[in-house]
Design brief:
The chain has 390 residues and is α/β, with parallel strands linked by helices. It is 46% helix and 15% strand. It has three domains: 2-145, Rossmann fold (3-Layer(aba) Sandwich); 150-289, no CATH class; 315-389, Orthogonal Bundle (Rna Polymerase Sigma Factor, Chain: A), CATH 1.10.1740.10. It is globular, with a radius of gyration of 20 Å. The structure holds NADPH dihydro-nicotinamide-adenine-dinucleotide phosphate and magnesium ion. Residues 147-149, 218 line the site of magnesium ion (MG).
Length: 390
């Protein structure tokens, strides 16, 4: 029996992970499940999977969680510290699928006890790539990608020598507004941005797909995961979302990873790695699909892609600033304080504001410094939002 924990169990990635493990309950001993607002789902899954402990991030809802678990034998806990404590419980495989920078501390705790970390929480690598990787190395822990593009690159690199890699190409569907006239983008509503043409995901990453902030994060994630220079990482728009990434080698070969847009593939690959096991995903009928389409990424439409390159050039803690500014701008858009197109302006202003202040962006990458940069960036981004909200 493998001991496993799922952080962000109530979310889109978490529920897909549970779908896979619930098909083979005798193979897994579930240690911890965590969620935030969705107490009913958390309790239901914790009871069904006989978890040792269920933890909600929302401190004030401990009693509600306790009531929902009453008589089941599953322990209840609440708050950010309790989530990190649960990540320190010994487990063989841990899914990191909390959304946002809140996933960083539990991920580090999981790596600190040598677990294999299946990483969906790309924010960890964007905010603190060096810290995450050095913690894994120190404790002999493995990190496996769950983001579909990075799982695709990882699979294309099996048995290959990194010195033969010329470039990595990650694909982007283009999100909800791919075909909109650019001049209409300022009018985009939250509801329109929250609907993805191909993938069924959480709301935040869906809006980030429409703005390409998701792809911007993934370019940085690619650099951190595979150690390639930024100028060897390309983004192309591929509306069908079936080729997830391609690796270009020094003999001119391109190895593409092709599969249905279903996160259970990448989750299942990370769950069974290094084996490949049967997964309940659609088998593609290439003749029925007929054509794969590719387009260049237009930086006028998606300024987030240019900002990601600036972040990589700035280095230091600018990834943490970038992520925090992006999360705050996204909150501002969802709350109706800024327009869709102003999210990129808020992020760019925040990076400039903290750069100008100096010190913080170049500080050493410790968890405390990353959290401090995150905190300052959220304050600066809120100011930038206020300025625009009038
Ligand atoms: P969801 O919004 O669907 O789920 C997020 C999860 O995190 C939920 O369990 C939520 O709890 C929990 N949560 C929210 N806030 C906090 C907090 N402050 N502390 C602790 N837990 C919290 O997100 P997704 O599943 O879509 O995404 C999860 C991660 O995976 C993100 O980093 C995303 O970028 C990445 N990812 C997602 C993909 C997808 O297909 N969805 C694809 C590739 C990467 P609750 O729901 O109970 O409030
Ligand atoms: Mg992705």
């Amino acid at each position: 029996m493998r001991r496993i924990s799922i952080f962000g169990a109530t979310g889109s990635i978490g529920q897909n992970t549970i779908d896979l493990i619930a098909r083979a309950p005798d193979d897994y001993d579930v240690v911890a499940l965590t969620g935030a607002g969705n107490i009913a789902q958390l309790a239901q899954d914790a009871i069904r999977l006989r978890a040792d402990i269920a933890v909600t991030a929302e401190e004030g809802r401990l009693d509600e969680l306790r009531d929902a678990l009453n008589g089941s034998g599953v322990q209840a806990a609440a708050g950010a510290a309790a989530i990190t404590e649960a990540a320190s419980r010994p487990a063989d495989w841990i899914m990191s699928a909390i959304v946002g920078a809140a996933g960083l501390a539990p991920g580090l705790a999981a790596l600190g006890q040598g677990s294999t970390l299946a990483l969906a929480n790309k924010e960890s690598l964007v905010c603190a790539g060096h810290l995450v990787k050095s913690t894994a190395a120190r404790h002999g822990a493995a990190i496996l990608p769950v983001d579909s593009e990075h799982s695709a690159v990882f699979q294309a690199l099996i048995g290959e020598d990194m010195s033969a890699v010329e470039r990595i190409i990650i694909t982007a569907s283009g999100g909800a507004f791919r075909d909109w006239p650019i001049e209409d983008l300022p009018k985009a509503t939250v509801a329109q941005a929250s609907s993805h043409p191909n993938w069924d995901m959480g709301q935040r990453i869906t809006v980030d797909s429409a703005s390409m902030f998701n792809k911007a994060m993934e370019v940085i994630e690619t650099r951190e995961f595979f150690g390639v220079d930024p100028d060897r990482i390309e983004v192309i728009v591929h509306p069908q979302s079936m080729i997830h990434a391609l690796v270009g080698f020094n003999d001119g070969a391109l190895m593409a990873h092709v599969g249905p847009p279903d996160m259970r593939h990448a989750i299942g690959f990370a769950l069974h790695h290094p084996a490949r096991r049967h997964l309940p995903v659609e088998r593609l009928d290439l003749v029925a699909i007929g054509t794969f389409e590719f387009r260049p990424p237009d930086e006028a439409r998606w300024p987030a892609l240019r900002i990601a390159r600036e972040v990589m050039a700035r280095g230091g803690l600018s990834g943490a600033v970038f992520n925090a500014a992006k999360e705050t701008a996204l909150d501002g858009f969802i709350a109706g304080h800024i327009r869709f197109t102003q999210m990129a302006d808020v992020v760019a202003d925040t990076l400039d504001a903290l750069d100008a202040r100096g010190g913080h962006i170049d500080a050493t990458m410790t968890l405390d410094n990353v959290l401090e940069a995150d905190h300052l960036a959220r304050k600066a981004a809120e100011l930038a939002i206020k300025k625009r909200a009038g």
